[in-house]
Amino acid sequence: MIKTPDQPVGSSSKTHNQRDIVGTIHPWRVGYHKEFKIAQPNTWDRVDLEPVFHDLSEASPSCLRRDEAIAVNTGLDCHGLAPWLDSHPMITYGVCIGPSDSYEWVCRPSLPSAAVVSERRQQSSIFQAYNSILEELTALSNLEAVVLLHDDVELGPRFEDDVRGALTTGAGVIGAIGSLHPPSIEWWKGETRGRVIETRRSLDYGGGVHDVDTVDGFVMVLSPDCARTVRFDERTYRGFHGYDIDYCYEAKRAGFRVVVALLDCVHHPKGTLDMIAYRQADLAWQRKWHRVPPYLLAVRRAKLALAQARRIRVGVGSEMARYVALVPESTKRLLDVGCFEGGFDRAMTARGVEVWGIDVDTAADSAASRGLSRAIVGDYPDALPQGERFDCITFNDVLEHMADPARTLSATRSHLTEGGCVIASITNVRNVSVIAPLVLHGRWDYADAGVRDRTHLHWFTKATMRELFEKAGYRVERQDPINLSRLEGRARVLNLLGRHKEQFVAEQYLLLARPVPDA
Fold it and tell me: How many folded domains does the chain comprise?
């Protein structure tokens, strides 16, 4: 419960928040103290303002409205007050409002009564919302600062005084807490600075003013120059995570200081977090600011795509994660040949790739379409429409089942874009699980799946896989062993095989190949 001056302890805060109560225009803004009353601030009701602004010769509107573009906390449209706003320095506010009631019960009642507030409700991206807010507020003259707030932040009576004091440091971005050298968007894992009260606990990293690399975005104070110069990166990021640290890095790159300072406010965090979206934002930040090697980014991206598709954690050693990681970043359009189960397709769709699928099984039309832009039932490549081209075409455990895999690969060349690639996983018949029973017991027993799948028409080794692609006109760029057999206790025997031992434990190989240009 938020305690207000009008509200006895234990009473509901709703009575105070329904602002058919008296508001106050601060003396420092208009030169005198005057009370006024707005009947229904969230409607388009007519409001007679002449008694309030009788001594402001240019400001005597008879009808003002409140909307979600720029609003006065009392319910007045700031555009109608333009002459007054233009002549008085002001701290303005921007709030991206979520689906909960936090703004109505926590943030809005604590805003200064005559504050200019730009609101955005039910947004899909805080980056876009804040950029829109900045475009509106920075158009105002005599701007002292732009304060970007979460809807669960309660401002204290000294907040604006604290803001003005912090602005004297010359900083472009000011926050209550932050850190130096953050290793990720989890800024608190860096060298933390600042102090704030939260309803769950107090965070005290030392008071005073400190230069930092980033601040926590629950409250961000931007100087006029910074607000007009730096924008949130809505092209790189989506959703609601990473905006604060990325903006701070952009501000520092533009030459602005980023500091933490004592700000009179209380944070009422909701405690909910979409970890997949959070990790996606962290991956985008890491990629943008070059914090990790490219190969590790690829693995992290694959894990996130699969986690988003399945809503589960994907282990670092997941073979599907390695498969997804092998797909080039530049891939915009992908064809999956043999898409019956659709798990890989959902992972790629989650990564933003347009995915087509083709399979001979009629069940693929409904099963795979959950992760596809288009599902085709029929033989590849005959059923594929003429002229369709893709950046990547995949064969996940498919080539072994085809009557003529060499012909299939040759025909695939005409369906690849310039620079396109083929990725395939193929079972390895030189695996110890096949050799041991064959050599020791003279047995070759078919199975329902695996290397000795009874539906296989062809079997390959590491060498013959490469030959298959090369004869079809491809250059093999990658050939990685996957699904390694468990051979505890046989390490001594395998060591005798030297550099060839990988071929005896790999149940499959994952290949990436590109067409050799015609001479």
Answer: 1
Residue 150's contacts (CB-CB under 8 Å, 6 or more residues apart) are 95, 96, 102, 107, 217, 218, 219, 267
Q: If you search the block for the tokens 């298959």, which residue do you land on? A: 468
Residue 381 covered by a domain: yes
User: Domain for residue 396, yes or no?
Assistant: yes
Q: How confident is the model at residue 361 (pLDDT cuts 50, 70, 90)?
A: low
Short-list 336, 342, 346, 357, CA closest to 307: 346
401: in domain: yes
> Could you tell me if residue 506 is inside a domain?
yes
Collect contacts of 253-257 with beta carbons under 8 A, ≥24 apart.
254/172, 254/226, 254/229, 254/230, 256/171, 256/172, 256/173, 256/223, 256/225, 256/226, 256/229, 256/230, 257/169, 257/170, 257/171, 257/172, 257/173, 257/211
Instruction: Give mean pLDDT, residues 41-69.
Output: 32
DSSP calls for 368-435: GGGG-SEEEES-TTTTSPTT--EEEEEEES-GGGSS-HHHHHHHHGGGEEEEEEEEEEEEBTTSHHHH
Q: Which of 3-7, 185-189, 244-248, 379-383 has the lowest mean pLDDT?
A: 3-7
Contact 144, 164 (CB under 8 A): yes
Largest Cα span, the chain: 105
Do the strands 153-155 and 177-180 form a parallel or antiparallel pair, or are they unpaired? unpaired
Q: Do 220 and 194 touch, CB atoms closer than 8 A?
A: no
Instruction: Determine the structural domain holding residue 482 and report its residue range.
Output: 284-515
Angle between helices 126-137 and 243-253 (to 10 degrees): 50
How far, in Å, CA of 475 to CA of 487, rounded? 33
Cα gap 357→365, rounded to integer Å: 9
Whichever domain contains 423, its CATH number is: 3.40.50.150
Predicted confidence band at 379 (pLDDT cuts at 50, 70, 90)?
confident
